UniProtKB/TrEMBL annotation:
InterPro entries recorded: Cholesterol_7-desaturase, DUF5914, Rieske_2Fe-2S, Rieske_2Fe-2S_sf
Keyword Oxidoreductase: yes
Protein name: Methylesterase
Organism whose genome encodes this protein: Streptomyces auratus AGR0001
PROSITE patterns for the chain: RIESKE
Amino acid sequence: MSRTRRPRPRLPLRLRRSPQPWAQQRPTWRDAKPAVIADAVKTALARPSGNWFVLGAARDIAAGRAFGRTVAGVEVVAWRDAAGRLVAGPGACPHLGAPLALGPVHGGILRCRWHGLALDGAPFAGWEPFPAHDDGLLAWVRLDEAGGELPLPEPVIPARPRPAGAVAAVHTATGSCEPEDVVANRLDPWHGAWFHPYSFADLTVAGPPADGERAEGIAVEVSFKVAGRAVVPVTALFTAPEPRTVVMHIVAGEGRGSVVETHATPLGPDDRGRPRTAVIEAIVATSRRPGFALARAAAPVLRPLMRAAAARLWRDDLAYAERRWELRSSGRHPG
């Protein structure tokens, strides 16, 4: 006898029956064992990256202009060639060191503003391109000397929903810490409802899903706050596919299949010698509900809202990561 599938609720919202004040929720500090978080971070850092680093959002590197960023202390310039392909290489002109990121791009040709040296992406005059990859959402660059690993032909890219059925946005923030501290923040889901009460409630950290789906990772049951007592409950799974990336997969509940990718890109020291890290977070939302087509049609309006929500969370989470680096660098970190 086959089971009758329960109809999907018309709305994903639920009303919390007995919402507790922030100070009365169950403490999670006993569950958030420093050794458990440290082991998760150690495991993530041991995974190969193939020397690939996220440069930024793919849409930020548009035809007709150059994009510059220092990655792991290496000045990088990126642009689109005549065919629209991503090109990346050293950001200093090989002639006299001018900043190539300030040069104009015409017909896929980047010209140095100082003396007009022209680059089409091929090796020229001592300038050698870096391997680059556009995955449709993020732009990556491979820096073999900075990475120091065995190179991989492509970056380790997490599974994502099909672009045709999703709405995606990318938010970038910068903090005084190292990528390890960003990864540690994301591998500590126990802090969610305490540190971000405006976004999360009723958070419980569980084990891997019983059906064996995505056996590795930290599973979390949590409710996303909407307004008042209205919430959207989901089950999320946090995994670290490579040393500078942590991914949150929605594995049950509304938006199943959606992902939030957090990529930590080392930049270089600031004027005080502190490390700087760019957090480049990609949010890819999807839903099986027929009405999601309307959300996709409204993507230009939704993307700024998605970036604003990520920015609010990362104002807090970068404070966590920066504090962790400060304690680590002074030998005071309890983990």
